[in-house]
Amino acid sequence: MVKHIVPAESAGGAETADVLHSAAVRLLRLARTADVGMDLDGPRASALSVVVFRGPLPLTRLAAAEQVSPPAMTKTVAALEAAGLVERVRGDGDRRVVLVAATDAGRDLLNRGRAARVALVDELIAGLPERDRRTLHRAATILLDRVLAGPPSRVSGCSAMRHQEIVA
User: Fold this and answer.
1) 34-63: per-residue pLDDT in tens?
2) N or C: which end of the chain has fewer CB within 10 A?
3) Is residue 28 part of a domain?
4) Single pTM value for the model
């Protein structure tokens, strides 16, 4: 059921935030249906995304970015490693540091998944008038460049790592 919403011209911050939240949740649920071919559960896909877009990370920073405990992340990384999607490598500056890095197969899988989600969203908006598609593009650009690109402290509840992964 589609609910009638306050016209954009008279919507306050709370109404806009509510509509934006609902749209984001529904859009992500729909886009996630394209992930079936990745054969990864949500936590593994999310951890792989952080490693691909942020680069090699120590396991503790990856756990913090994903807001899980280091033991939970150890299990996730072990599963990704067994699938050949990540590997543990020594840090360049300090050989004692072990980093989790994406393999070529991991990057390829994640990029194919992202392309499938983007294609699905493109299909969803394809029937909209050009003006509406431009409006969506402008709104998404404002969110990425002005709202989410600010200091991590402005993005309440997001660590700097998680914030960067979200932006990617």
Assistant:
1) 877 788 888 899 999 999 999 899 999 999
2) N
3) no
4) 0.71
